[in-house]
Write a structure and sequence with these properties.
heterodimer, A: 386 residues, mainly alpha, 21 helices, B: mainly alpha, 2 helices
Chain lengths: 386, 76
């Protein structure tokens, strides 16, 4: 052992000597995500941890994303994402932050949350059609997980994928979260294309006041329906409704506060880093990833379109209570971004038209709808695939 | 069953379940609201005493009152 040999060994262990092209590409992707978050303000709470996780996971030799050698992000991923734990904790926080008041005041907007789930099943079919081609191979489990991106609900997508197709978690989580961040860019052109100027100007009646008792009973009622009809959706719906009950009942404000803030923030950090860690070059730079990103976009756009179209139809049918078709687009969950987009597109036509509260109804209905769709997929995909 | 047929079956069942679930939820919510507002109406929250109204007062007096209210607001 001499000095020269030791120096050579050290040189061989530097990042420069061990970097592969794929890793460089993925680290650049990580930096792009950070740029989008910091400079452009796209969902910074998600993209900062995801982008940084992507960079950390692609560092040669460090094995930060490998839980077998106790890489710290690998451990987070193994314990929270593979088990489906983090998405459920996030759902609890979402429940504690959600006000179902607008939905209770105007329950028929629930149906818009159902219409927007059509994108899920279209993308599912699309994935199966793609797998006929030679270079991509998706089975039914993969296709169902890809479809759920159309629910525009990150936690739901991760939960379903961790159950059905854990191998695809990386690209699916990335697609789900990036489309949630891109809601303000993807949705407005579709919304404008499908509605007329007059429809976008429609003013809706003010929502009635909802009593506290209604808000307390609502989560229990939803959970009851779910227990009876679709037990496979109860982990998601149950966590959501537990959080919501804690918020509305008014006697456990400390717990509700923790769910909304501290717990939510902690899990967001863990989940973001874990999702980023799945952007490892050897697993991410594949034809499948491109297919998943494309299908996710299709799913999301179709969901937006069917939501708007059903809202148009509802507006035609109910002359007495006009419905602005723009709120249909909020039926793809992505709370509260999609509702804000509906409000913004409405105000482009008429600055005095406030659609935000009206759009919150379909928006939270979309969360329920995608959770129900997730429950259906979890329940019947294994049966059909046999 | 081919892969595409399986996908179509999933689509039909999936959309049917999602729609029926949420339609059932519409009715449950409506019944819930009807029962609650009918049998357990919320007690009227006493409205805070509003600023004293000037009966038959002049426009100037009303403006003076508005200025006083604004001043009180800004001191707070």
């Amino acid at each position: 052992m001499n000095l020269g040999y030791a120096l050579k060994q050290f040189w061989m262990s530097t990042g420069v000597m061990n970097m592969e092209v794929g890793q460089i590409v993925m680290i650049i992707v990580g930096f792009v995500l950070l740029f989008l978050a910091i400079k452009k303000g796209f969902e910074p709470l998600l993209l900062v941890p995801i982008g940084f996780g992507a960079i950390l996971a692609n560092i040669p030799l460090a094995e930060i994303a490998n839980y077998e050698v106790n890489g710290f992000i690998g451990l987070l991923y193994h314990m929270g994402v593979e088990t489906g734990l983090f998405p459920l904790l996030i759902f609890m926080g979402v429940g504690a932050m959600t006000d179902f008041g607008p939905l209770i005041a105007n329950p028929k907007t629930l149906i818009l949350g159902a219409a927007a789930q059509f994108g899920i099943f279209c993308a599912l079919l699309g994935a199966l059609a793609l797998s006929g081609t030679s270079f991509i191979d998706f089975n039914l489990f993969d296709a169902a997980s890809i479809g759920i991106i159309g629910g525009a609900d990150g936690p739901t997508a991760i939960y379903v994928t961790s159950r059905l197709a854990p191998d695809l978690l990386g690209p699916i989580a990335v697609a789900a979260y990036s489309y949630m961040a891109l809601v303000p860019i993807i949705q407005p052109p579709i919304m404008r294309a499908l509605t007329t100027k007059e429809e976008r100007q429609i003013k809706m009646e003010q929502l009635r006041h909802v009593t506290q008792l209604e808000k307390i009973i609502f989560p229990i009622a939803v959970l009851t329906v779910c227990i009876i009809l679709l037990p496979s959706a109860t982990p998601l719906i149950g966590a959501l409704m537990f959080g919501n009950l804690a918020k509305e009942c008014g006697v456990v404000n400390r717990l509700s506060d923790t769910m909304q803030n501290s717990l939510m923030n902690i899990v967001t950090i863990f989940l973001g880093l874990s999702v980023g860690s799945k952007m490892q070059a050897d697993k991410f730079l594949k034809a499948e990833t491109l297919g998943i990103l494309a299908l996710g976009l299709v799913a999301f756009s179709i969901g937006t379109a069917t939501g708007v179209l059903l809202a148009k139809l509802m507006n035609k049918i109910s002359k007495k209570h006009p419905i602005n078709p723009l709120i249909g687009a909020a039926g793809v969950s992505a709370v509260p971004m999609a509702a804000r987009v509906a409000n913004k597109v409405g105000q482009e036509e008429n600055p005095h038209n406030f659609l935000l509260m009206h759009a919150m109804g379909p928006n939270v209905a979309g969360v329920l709808g995608s959770a129900v769709a997730a429950g259906v997929l979890l329940a019947i995909v294994p049966v059909i695939a046999g | 069953m081919s892969l595409m047929e399986q996908g179509l079956v999933l689509m039909v069942i999936g959309m049917a379940v999602v729609f029926s679930f949420l339609v059932i939820l519409i009715f449950v919510t409506k019944i819930l609201s009807a029962v609650v507002t009918r049998y357990f109406p919320e007690k009227e929250v006493p409205v805070k005493a509003s600023a004293p109204r000037i009966i038959g007062g002049s426009a100037d007096a009303e403006i003076a009152l508005a200025i006083a209210a604004a001043a009180a607001q800004s001191k707070r």
